[in-house]
Amino acid sequence: MAEDNSASLSTLVVTGQQTPYIRLSETATKTDQDLLDTPFSVNIVNQNFIQDLQAETLADVYPYVVGLSQSGNIANSFTLRGLSSSLQNVQIDGLPGLASRFGSPSTANIERVEVLKGPASVLYGLMEPGGLINIVTKKPQAESQTSLSFSGRSYASSDSGFGSDVGGTFTYDSTGALTEDKDLLYRFIGSVENIDSFRDGVNDNNVYLYPTLSYQINPDMNATIGMEYIRERRDDDDGLVAVNNDIDQTASLSTRYQRDGDSSNDDGLALFGRLENQINDSTLFRLNLRSVYHKDDRELYENNKVNDAATTLTRRDRYQVNKRQYHFFDANLSHKFETGELFHNTLIGINGGFERSDFDRKRFGSVIIPDINVFHPLSNSGTPKALKPSTHRITDDYNLGLYAQDTVELNDYVSVMLGGRFDTQRTRYTEKDVGKPDKFEKQNTKKFLPQAGLVFRATDEVSLYMSHSESFTPNSIQRRNTDGKSFDPELGKQNEFGIKAALLDDRLNFTASSFKITKTNITEKDDLNKEYKLVGELESKGTEFEIQALPIENWQIRIGYANTDSFISHSLESKTEGNRNAFAPKHNGFIWTRYNIPKPVWGGNVGTSLGLNYQSSQYTSSDKATRVELPSHTRVDLGFYYDIKQYRFALNIENLFDETYYTGGSKDTIIYPGDPRLITLSFKTTL
Questions:
Q1: pTM for the complete prediction?
Q2: CA 20 to 30 Å from 464, out of 142, 182, 341, 366?
Q3: Domain 12-686: CATH architecture, name and number where available
Q4: How far apart are CA 669 and CA 241, in angstroms?
Q5: 640-680 per-position pLDDT tens digit
Q6: What is d(CA 69, CA 332) in angstroms, rounded to the nearest whole number?
Q7: 374/665 Cα distance (integer angstroms)
């Protein structure tokens, strides 16, 4: 089962098709440290499991990651350990800068997904404290290989009959050497998809291109350059609305309130480069660069206000064009050495970059008349009541951080990790509103963040750990105190302890953790004097566990569960204290299993999988006046696989029993229903 014995398994890795477990992850420490000796919780989803699920976007794997919940349809719409996330909480090969915003990232270029739980600012810079999702991309390989894959899909439910809403995805993946000595390698991945949603009039047309070159400069030095191009075209959809904040008072799942032609579009180009230099057996230098040029536009009549008594919806006119630039870098040096009887694994680094957000609201805020009926909408009707002046906002962020980390093995059983970061953030904000003079604001933020951990290696197979980690996020530059000064940044702090085990020659793998995260320095507006104050505080605490086992050959089982209590612990409004945070279910968990028939069937290999994922009820907002309670649900997924020679066929049925559930939204005006029963037939061949 485990062919690579270079290090002991210390994190639970989602596997499929009987492949070896992934042994190491660099996301937690940016070093090649054995994860059994790492005082943090990491979950890994590998490529085979992504294929087993027939996951086409990153969000498709969320139900099978402990403590991770979806909260909407855009790239950073998720909560980790009960806390919301920002775009910085999603990284690509260790750097921020997604090439797409509105949609969840495609899996076409994903080798695996590594989820680091809790604050991660010491190594990665500003982000929310719930955790980090690191997308590890596919790399060029020396051995030539080309694969073609196609999947076709259709819903089969009461809301969308079989054959009514269909879609397809085609992916081409080729890699190999361009020179005889195999010093220069390439990889090219291209994917196109055309998908009809079960939602009325909603269609996605997307193109993804990922070319990469890798050059072995000498035996100790490697350089990689590449590009990502993303073009996404979709019909905009604000989901359902709830009358009287009651999920039972919603229209049918397919009902859409936007007009025909309302759209949201993404165009993104990312350029990246990596350099690795193994200076000697103990010292490694790495340089990572990433630049992104991104544009998205959104033009629609958006959901704005539910009129409960009249059971109508007021919509608002919006046409907005956003342009973003990201230029990030990370350079670090890791070195292993001894001082007496102590062994050190040390890391020092510098990272940061420049980010520009250019948001141009060409039309915004004008109410559409007349209102439309919630249950029988005439979505194409209505005109803006009045035109409002456009608003144009430009934000430039400059960030630089110095970090250091040392893991010291005190003896064969105990290791201590200490780390810290000094970070500086400079922001310039410009408003260019029509009919008003330009407005400028500046903000400077400096912060030192520590982290520490202790690991006790009870045996070669079991370790106990505890850790403290921190994060920070600058408060909005538009919010000032009574003296006109900017606020201190939001701070996240986590204390965690847990146990990890890899038993029975890796046939039984287990991890469990308990954590408490506090997020402080949250600004709130005092309704009495209209001033902002640093009074808000969130708290999230809970336990998680995950088991992965191979009871007998050809049978895999994976079980995960999280119990999370995430709530507002302090607020200006005492009535909101104690309210649960949005999209922070108390319970979520899953069971996934796959069995491969040991003997050939019709000359090939046959396997089947069954997955159950459960999520307890959750709220669309932490405000009782606007929130909607989304009910608990259990979704069942089924898969059948047939491999013969270089061909692979798969049939996946997602939401087998056509359960009604909801995946995200905001307050009572945006509620996204989950997919009804979905059947996907896929084919892959390797040339």
A1: 0.94
A2: 341
A3: Beta Barrel (2.40)
A4: 5
A5: 999 999 999 999 999 999 999 999 999 999 999 999 999 99
A6: 32
A7: 17
